[in-house]
Amino acid sequence: MNIRSTFEDGRLTIYFEGELDHHAARDALRQIEERIDATCPRETVLDFKGLTFMDSSGIAVVVKAYKRTSQVGGKLSVTNLGPQPRRVLQAAGVERFVRVIVTPKEV
Is the dihedral of CA 3, 35, 26, 68 positive or negative? Predict the structure, then answer.
């Protein structure tokens, strides 16, 4: 799992590459929290374009990112969901509290 981020105009975008499974989740959570704490963003976007696989550990990553972003007064969105990660998040009902940005190619 490779994670990188950008911060511009109050928006923290975190890019994921690889597999988000139980092996990668702990490190991903640590990196996300560090970046949120360092920037206190108005909006955090989790960009899953480079994600090749996500299991239920990815749900925990999204939920904890949502909670941490909310604690600093921001909102969380996810974007560029492939079919498999989308199914995982839909099954968990994450779309009820996290904004999912659908790109034209996903429609």
Answer: negative
pTM equals: 0.93
Domain 2-106 part of CATH 3.30.750.24: yes
Any idea where the domains of the chain sit in the sequence?
2-106
Phi, psi of 36 (to 5 degrees): -65, -45
- Name, in order, each residue with C-beta under 8 angstroms of 48's C-beta and a sequence gap of 6 or more: 16, 54, 78, 79, 80, 81, 82, 85
Give the DSSP per-residue string, 4-27.
EEEEETTEEEEEEEEEESHHHHHH
User: Which tens digit of pLDDT belongs to each residue from 50-84?
Assistant: 999 999 999 999 999 999 999 999 999 999 999 99
- Return the SS3 of 94: helix
Residue with tokens 């374009």: 49
CA distances from 17 to 45, 64, 103 (A): 14, 19, 18
